[in-house]
Write a structure and sequence with these properties.
By secondary structure, chain A is mainly α. Chain A has nine helices and one strand; from the N terminus they run E-H-H-H-H-H-H-H-H-H. The longest helix of chain B has 17 residues, at 2-18. The chains are: A mainly alpha (302), B alpha/beta (203).
């Protein structure tokens, strides 16, 4: 079969009228302007998700310090995380428009913010104390006793923030809901990994052993379910799963590290060498899962 | 063994016999257009083994929001790829009065769109959009006694992700609701799903 090849070659600049160009660039400018605001909104939410992880990271580091495990290193790391938490929290509180929006969604929101401000202020003071004195038992205990409350409060605040960002347009809101559920869930394993490593450390230290053992088992279950759901989907968690090859590759990396962590946290006794390995794997997992988060944000495969 | 060699040889030979360029139609291999002072060749992906790996491989998305769209929206003319390519070519003419609009939100648009298209998310045409007046004026519409006159607005070809996506439908409905004549709008219903599935150039 003879294929007749016709290439239609059209000529340069003059073909485009000036008014058409003006129209195109004018529209682009307006859309860019509207999009800039959305990008800012997304940044606020992105920082918000990371705060959950930081509460557990700080608590884990506090425990390692109390165990005299590389105290100097973890004192520094804990303070760095607390500084970042503080900065993001302050940014959030200063975004008055956003807070007003969130208040409309939930009238008790202002009170909750005051509660969290109060808890965080004490939490931050104690972190600073530990960063100066690794043996400050009182400060270490405070972090141990209040980190879950801080995690829950922060999660509550951010859920309301997300709600406040919902569009009044039904189609846009519905499309955004699917994405926000995915973003919420895809970042969560980073919080879980810190939480369950922290729980394993508490068991090693014989602190509320029975309670923490139960908590650890739950965390493992939640983590297993979530990792599977990110891949295969889970109706209750409002996740569709993915067939995207790149995403599956990234998830497989996280899953492999998670399996290694799971073996370590399930051990009845844990040596110092294994503890070091566990902490390294914990950090490796966070890096790997952050890659999943990044890929999720740049994809429309949901 | 000999038979196997012959079979493989036959397969290779027939592959060469039937292999040719992946054209758009029998008579059309590609079109070259100008965008941002650069030549862009719109053609199909030439690799006959190429398969989609993007999000357009999905068969099932949640409905709502991603529901199947009707073939016709009022009296707005629905077009396919060949008509769209002809319009894209025509749009290069000096006296062209046409605009190709990608009605999707920016996150979709930034993953790739049809060359020469402009992104005007459907959300920006909503009643409560603070940019609505600016956009309509830029398009050439005039507000007279609280009503919009669209006589001087270019013909708009509107598309979104395709048959499972309502973003283009919403834009079209909204423009008509504001007073835009239906013959000023063309609906490329296949959208990015169709465009991608036949391997046409994406910007």
């Amino acid at each position: 079969m003879l294929v007749k090849k016709v290439v239609v070659l059209l000529l340069v600049a003059g073909f485009y009228s000036i008014s058409a160009n003006n129209l195109m660039s004018g529209l682009t400018d307006i859309v860019d302007q509207a999009e800039d605001k959305k990008v800012e909104d997304k940044k606020v939410l992105n920082y918000a998700f990371k705060q959950r992880m930081r509460t557990q990271w700080i608590a884990r580091d506090a425990l390692l310090i109390s165990m005299n495990f590389k105290s100097t290193f973890y004192q520094k790391e804990m303070l760095e995380n607390a500084d970042l938490f503080n900065e993001n929290f302050k940014n959030l509180l200063s975004s008055k428009k956003d807070i007003e929006k969130a208040k409309k969604e939930d009238p008790s929101f202002t009170k909750k913010i005051e509660d969290v401000k109060n808890t965080w202020s004490k939490f931050y003071d104690n972190v600073k104390k530990i960063s100066k004195d690794a043996k400050d038992k009182k400060a270490l205990n405070f972090i141990g006793e209040n980190n879950i409350k801080l995690l829950n409060d922060i999660a509550y605040i951010f859920t309301n923030f997300i709600k406040s960002y919902q569009s009044a347009d039904k189609l846009e809101a519905s499309m955004a809901h699917i994405k926000s559920m995915l973003y919420t869930q895809v970042g969560k394993p980073r919080m879980y990994i810190n939480k369950l490593v922290k729980e394993r450390l508490l068991i090693k230290q014989n602190i509320n052993k029975k309670e923490n053992q139960k908590s650890l088992e739950n965390s493992i279950k939640n983590m297993d379910r979530l990792m599977k759901a990110l891949k295969d989907g889970d109706k209750e968690l409002e996740l569709n799963g993915t067939e995207d090859r790149k995403m599956l590759e990234k998830l497989a990396i996280s899953q492999k590290i998670w399996e290694e962590v799971k073996i370590l946290v399930k051990k009845k006794t844990i040596t110092d060498k294994e503890l070091e390995l566990l902490i390294n794997k914990n950090n490796e997992f966070i890096k790997a899962q952050t890659e999943v988060v990044k890929l999720t944000r740049s994809s429309n495969d949901n | 063994m000999k038979n196997r060699v012959i079979t493989i040889g036959t397969i290779i030979c027939s592959t060469f016999l039937i292999a040719g360029g992946v054209n758009i139609t029998e008579d059309l291999e590609s079109i070259i257009i100008k965008e941002d002072n650069k030549d862009i060749k719109i053609q199909r992906i030439q690799d006959t083994k190429h398969r989609l790996t993007s999000s357009f491989t999905k068969t099932s998305r949640e409905c709502p929001p991603y529901c199947i769209q009707p073939m016709n929206i009022g009296k707005v003319k629905t077009i396919g790829e060949l008509e769209l390519l002809k319009y894209i070519k025509d749009m290069q003419e000096e006296d062209s009065n046409m605009l190709l609009i990608d009605a999707r939100t920016r996150d979709w648009y930034s993953e790739g769109s049809i060359p020469t298209s402009i992104n005007l998310p459907f959300t920006m045409l909503k009643k409560n959009s603070k940019y609505l007046n600016k956009i309509l004026k830029l398009l050439g519409a005039k507000e007279i006694d609280g009503k919009w006159n669209f006589d001087k607005v270019p013909t708009m070809i509107i598309f979104s992700n395709g048959i499972w996506d309502a973003q283009a439908t919403q834009s079209i409905k909204r423009l008509v609701e504001m007073g835009c004549s239906e013959d000023k709008i063309l609906y490329y219903r296949g959208g990015m799903q169709s465009w991608n599935s036949i391997g046409l150039t994406v910007k």
